[in-house]
Amino acid sequence: MRMQAAELFEQKIKPPEVAQRLRVSLKSAYQWHQLWREGGVQALASRGPSGSRCRLSPRCLEKLAGYLEQGPAAHGWVEDQAWTAARVATLIGRKFHVSYSISGATRLMHRLGFSPQVPARRVAERDERAVTVWKEATWAEVKEPGRPAGATSASRTRQASPVGRPGDAPGAGAATPRS
Length: 179
Known about the structure:
The protein is mainly α. It is about 45% helix and about 0% strand. The protein has seven helices and no strands. Helix 1 packs across helix 2 (about 15-20) and helix 2 (about 15-20) packs across helix 3 (about 25-45). The protein is flat and about 75 Å long. The mean pLDDT is about 85.
């Protein structure tokens, strides 16, 4: 978009019209115009993605992908086979001596084609059979019936009656069929 703006500025088109044509804010168009005046087309060229660069080398990223492929149990997490973002951040710290936040580990996992798993938090003593029996028997009795399947409306108000509305009021002709 910035390059299109540069082309328009070269054609002596003013920032307000550039903003309108490119559907950007007037402020952006004026900023781009100033950059273009000071440094030409190169000043409007993209500088690449923003944000901090990856702290792991391509070789380390390859190794990390291999570690993730091995699964959590191979690295000491034997209670379940879920790669959580916290575990991946810990693994990165252990293997590469680089500190990553949970959100940074999540982004890194996505970049490598993995997604963090959220383990189900269940009590170890949970009795699945008792839960199933309760759902089928007790819950069915205490659950309130849902809304009837009739016509429902998302609005809490009713449409006003057009009767008695002045002829020039908004929506006055809404009740009359069109010919």
